[in-house]
Design a protein that fits this description.
This protein is 84% helix and 0% strand. By secondary structure, the chain is mostly helical.
């Protein structure tokens, strides 16, 4: 059936496009929050479905939201609290004269060994002087005026920004809970809602929505869960070896694995510092511990990535790892931290629409020829 477009149709589509853009602007500040709520509902919906089979819908929603708070939000706040304490302890430890003296002694011993090695291989002209690595002197040279200036230019604005951020977090948490309350009971019908508003065939609507849902599951399970498992597997021996600030190191490794840059930027320097410290102080145990951290971390990261990731991303769209990396990095550049999700989703949606275009237009054209 052939459709003729007139001036009224063009006018309608212009109005439709304008109001679509206005609606996008209206919801732009809350799209990430709604998408985050949708991801959480996707993860917890099996639990909601089980509870709803035993109780009424209202009770199932309330219990499901409570489960999200218990198993997701409360641990996040707890981890952030521990991280704050560790950062405070690190700052106090760095400014403690006794700790500074011990650190300086270890550095001096290591520098002496390096200078002795340079002399033995006839490179004595490259000697390292103590003034070049004198941490105590560098800290003592900081004047009270400099400290006050740093507080005025960095700390006070940071505290104000933190207070404002906490207010935004509380308001966002309220909207997040409201979104959960509406999404839990309507989750299974969202595909039908998408079909009702989409102008293309239902089979293509179903394909798009299924790819969208599977991609979100794949990103969450194949990226976030794998990053958490890798960081946890690496941090356990570091805790056993009494490496400081384990929670902070764990968070940094999770973030670096998600980005994806790699947690090696954490465990390799930690192991290297242990080796250097052991060589400087003559502590063979520290050297062996540092070597163990590097070798063990390199192996366990690959084991988790090889064994766990394919299982978790079983139903996700098969994308080349290089495309995945660049989609995440590009997403972060455009959308910030939520680009970790937006990047792969946009790529998968593009691939899906390309497949639909091929089925709907190119294949039919080939049949006609």
């Amino acid at each position: 059936m052939k459709t003729n477009f007139g001036i009224k149709d063009i006018y309608f589509f212009i109005i439709f496009l304008v109001f679509s853009l206005l609606a996008l602007v209206l919801f732009s500040n809350y799209i990430s929050l709604i998408l985050l709520a949708y991801i959480v509902v996707t993860l917890f919906h099996p639990a909601y479905r089980f509870i709803a089979s035993k109780l009424n819908r209202g009770s199932a929603v309330a219990i499901s939201v409570l489960l999200v708070l218990i198993f997701l939000l409360i641990p996040i706040f707890f981890i952030l609290s521990l991280t704050t304490v560790e950062i405070k302890n690190l700052v106090e430890s760095f400014t403690d004269p006794v700790n500074l003296g011990n650190l300086q002694n270890s550095i001096d011993l290591f520098v002496n060994r390096v200078n002795e090695l340079l002399r033995n291989i006839n490179l004595g002209s490259f000697q390292i002087t103590r003034d070049q690595v004198n941490i105590v002197q560098a800290v003592n040279n900081i004047t009270p005026e400099q400290i006050i200036q740093v507080l005025q230019t960095t700390l006070f604005p940071f505290l104000l920004d933190t207070a404002s951020f906490l207010g935004q977090v509380l308001f966002g948490l309220f909207l997040f809970i409201i979104s959960l309350i509406y999404l839990f009971p309507n989750y299974e019908n969202l595909g039908n809602v998408f079909k009702r508003f989409s102008p293309i065939e239902d089979k293509f609507d179903e394909l798009i929505y299924q790819r969208f849902r599977n991609t979100l599951k794949g990103v969450v399970s194949g990226t976030f869960v794998v990053a958490i498992c890798q960081a946890t597997a690496v941090i356990l021996p570091l805790i056993a070896l009494n490496v400081g600030a384990p929670v902070l190191l764990w968070i940094i490794m999770v973030i670096l694995s998600i980005v994806p840059i790699g947690s090696g930027l954490v465990w390799f320097p930690v192991g290297l510092i242990m080796i250097i410290s052991g060589l400087g102080s003559g502590n063979i145990g520290s050297v062996i511990g540092g070597i163990f951290v590097i070798v063990y971390s390199a192996i366990i990261i690959n084991v988790v990535d090889t064994v766990l990731r394919p299982r978790l991303m079983r139903n996700a769209v098969d994308i080349h790892p290089m495309i995945t990396i660049f989609s995440v990095l590009g997403g972060i550049t455009l959308f910030g931290i939520m680009g970790i999700v937006y990047g792969p989703v946009l790529v998968v949606m593009y691939i899906t629409l390309t497949e639909i275009y091929k089925q709907k237009y190119l294949d039919k054209k080939d049949e006609q020829i």
